[in-house]
Amino acid sequence: MKTPNQQAAAIVKACERLRDAGVAAWPVLADGSMPGADSAAAVAAKARTIPGTCEAHGFAFVAPFRNELAACVRLASGATLAGVERTVSALIDEQRQIADLRSLVEGFSQRLMQSYEETYSLFRTLRLVASSPDPVCQIRLVCANVQQALPFSWVAVAFRDDPKIVPELRSRVFLVGVAPRQQEVEAAILNKAAALLENEWTKVLVPGRSTVATLTNAEAVCDPISHDDHVIGLLIAGNKINENGEISSPEMQYLDAVAEFIGTFHENMARYSEQRAMAMGTLEAITAAIDAKDPYTRGHSERVAYLACEIAKAMGLSEEDAERVRISGLVHDVGKIGVPERVLCKAGRLTDEEFGLIKLHPETGHRILKGITLLEHALGGVLHHHERIDGRGYPHGLKGDAIPLTARIIGLADTFDAMSSNRAYRPAMPREKVLAEIARCAGTQLDAAVVAAFSKVDLRSYDELMTRQATAAGVLFQQAA
To answer: Residue 2: helix, strand or coil by DSSP?
Structure first.
């Protein structure tokens, strides 16, 4: 058996082992000293020890653990070093188990919180893609939502140059966040989207094997976006923000789900785009047929639509609202389908009865279009484009701001085009005279603010449109300089 001094030395060594393992342990010798302990630890340990712990050998050791609670390990008479070793090993094992459990609980809590954020983000993504028909806005919002939910420096969506893809998204990349060498990365992402194979699914891109990963000097994860089982683009995220930058399986699964959402969103947008194009094609055919009833008004609706759109933009309206004004201008005269050709094409002055038939066309057009959901926004322009600011217009004699803005814009565009083109009852007026008449009518027939915006419109494109229409129809319009 070892002497008390040897046993004491062994206990001191055992406490060192415990401290190396993360257990705050100090020996308490018979003389009350605590080798290796600072004053604070000594006071705390002494407060927890019991005098006369070990009569035979004159020592004990105290191990504060389990959230700073102290355990006093007492050695009975005749205790051996092997017993001390077993006690030390048991304490070390318990401390390690506690540390492992704590780490496991913390990791589980973090993963649970991330899973909640990801699940909530997926639902938010679903709401986003259903909130607006603007595909560009929606894709940017989805990228921002993913970048907020996952620990990546940047997230991007890229689409191929493919006829199946809606025009607004075709051959474009949308990147949210900050990527190193961003312009080069965006170009590489587009190339990656073009090179994806039909059977290529979620994969991790690594530096040295992938241009995107090499440019960013970090792993990236990409997932294909499909439409009708055909790859149309990809969702990609890179430069993960954590200690090792490694991409986890749950993150890949999350991105896979988002890519599915984007694919479904694109299919819906493509169907909407096809239906809209079909509807607009039908409307253009109808308006062209109506314009063709009078050879002098051929192309009139298209020109009014163009001018109205340009005026709307000059007034600061958004692209979406300007497009609505354009569509309203395109169909503004659809009610003339109910006006006899003998009246529309009459070369001389109209009788009161004939003019009465002409004045019916805004209400006729409104009745024709009011059941078409796509054209609900156009109804005000169709019904009121012949109203006057001074209240002397038709069909309802509205005055000032009571006239819808779309109608006020179309009214000016309609007036300008009517004076600028040949009609059965008179030739086209010179441009200078037309502009002077427009200025004279500001505040009476026409809205002064609309006239001011019209003065900013470059009319060269309008003149080119008129020339193309005349050439296509085989009719040369006589337009004065």
So the answer is: coil
The answer to whether 381 touches 334, Cβ cutoff 8 Å, is no
* Helix (H) / strand (E) containing 110: helix 81-129
Segment 20-58, tens digit of pLDDT: 655 555 665 555 566 655 554 554 444 444 333 333 333
DSSP state of 61: E
Give the CB-side neighbour count of residue 248, counting CA atoms within 13 A: 13
328 contacts 306 by C-beta, under 8 angstroms: no
Cα(437)–Cα(70) distance, integer angstroms: 99
Residue 265: closest CA among 374, 146, 118, 165: 165
* Residue 103 neighbours by CB under 8 Å, 6+ apart: none
Q: Are residues 394 and 443 in contact, defined by beta-carbon separation less than 8 angstroms?
A: no
Burial of 263 from C-beta contacts in 10 A (0-12 / 13-18 / 19+)? buried
More confident residue, 268 or 405: 405
CATH architecture of 130-271: 2-Layer Sandwich (3.30)
Spatial separation of the C-alpha atoms in residues 452 and 102, rounded to whole Å? 72
Q: Right CATH number for 292-473 from 3.40.50.11260, 3.40.50.1820, 3.40.50.300, 1.10.3210.10?
A: 1.10.3210.10
Tell me how far apart the alpha carbons of residues 162 and 228 are, in angstroms, rounded to a whole number. 13
Cα(44)–Cα(69) distance, integer angstroms: 10
pLDDT for the residue numbered 73: 44
